[in-house]
Amino acid sequence: MGVTGVPRRPSLPAFSSEITPPPGVGYDASHAPVPSAARPPGGRTGLADAVAKASAAVSRGVLRTPGFSTKKLVIVMVGLPARGKTHMARCLERYLNWLGFTARVFNVGEYRRKLLGATQPATFFDPSNPDGARARWELALECLRDMTNWLEEGGLVGIYDATNSTRDRREVVRTRLEADGVRVLFLESICDDATIVEKNILETKARSPDYRFVDAEAAVADFKMRIQNYCAVHETVLDEEACSYIKIINVGSKIILNGITGYVQGKIVSYLTNAHIMPRAIYLSRHGESEWNVTGQLGGDPNLTPRGRRYAHALNAFIMAETKQYAASQPWSEDDGDAPPTVEGALPLVWTSQLRRTRQTVAHIPTINMCWRALNEIDAGVCEGLTYASVAESMPDVAAARKADKLRYRYPGGESYVDVLTRLEPVILELERQRGPVLIVAHNAVIRGIYAYLMNKTQAGCPSIDIPLHTVFKLTTRAYGAEEQRFPLDVEATYNNKTPESDVDEQREGDADGGGGDAEAPASDGGEGGAPPAAAEQNGERVLAAA
Hints:
- By secondary structure, this protein is α/β, with parallel strands linked by helices.
- Helix content is 35%, strand content 13%.
């Protein structure tokens, strides 16, 4: 196939809200030189020579920051119950892991439930109860020991999730960690807004393992008593403690910083200034079937097929039905002069790439579409317009190198998955700012990256996540993990992007995007690559992301 007439991606300016990644952050591409021209003279006949000169090697994809310190960091959570600490800790964990750092939450409450059971009454948390205080302190120390052992084994950022209410307790934790050469950052969540606290109590009552089998009214009463026990001894973090700290006040309405240093702490601050703890729905979908889905070509800017256009209508109907439910669930009071929520006012934000197949997919949804260049499909470079079979035939080195390391391999003249994740970071931060529902319609590699972030998957598993066509993913953020529902919209699609016939493990139809060559089979064991089989059940079955 010649290159004449191949629809290329439009050369459009970046959307105004797109942010260039900070200087000094990049990926080691020294092992993956690229051709001097993406389209060498001679058309396809010159591709093999160009690729040979480019070496078609795997880029390392290692985050490099001049002056970046590899010193370990522990984020010590501080605050009363029902202030969003666990939600905040889980969000930071998934964000740092998604960036490529190794982060893990160590929750003292999980140790208590594992060793003592989840049915401890509020009196167990009474500071005047010496047996309870002793047991809680021993659990806290065991959790702390496990975290330091994990750091010694290669972890980079530990998140110590507990109330850590008193200055004396924090001093013991800080002293022990600093003695091991670990930096300490206190992250305190303060909330004196009774409405927010009440909502958090109800959320905790509904989701916390402590109250899974407890009557709702009894659970709320017990939890409020537990909070009162902590209030009796709680001390806020002070400058006199000579420590680095971040204070989040009333769900981010005010943030106080003290002694913040280093690249990782800076990334944490950037994230926290955008994030919040309020639950909301995020809808993810690939575009409808495109012309190049049918022909099996990579990249380009093709139009939707008739089936893709039917999916666009089905997506509009689905979003309108979801919006009606969302509007009906919103609280309002006629006594306060409120008007009842309307469907028009409750429509989600709609974000797409700048490519026509995504814009055509949302054309019937009656709201403004924000087009992000950062949401464009992975750039296949000199392979755009080819099929997998033709890549394997004319550029076997490229096919073999990408199969060996799909995450880090950079198409000659194009991108790697690591490159895509890097440009998605501004989208993630903007997504965290939103307090209402958001619909993102993009491409296979891009949706994989966003799904991996929301469901706490590592970078390594990202390229294997199964994102079928004509399916809506509804992810609802919660304190203990994101709740997933999948909605296949019953519009048939053709899947023709296959990898070479020799790749026996990758001979699965149903994963083609017609953009960027994403046709590998998903993992089936529920590990880092993709959701467990139960997550793929039809008609919106709920699945909770592994925390």
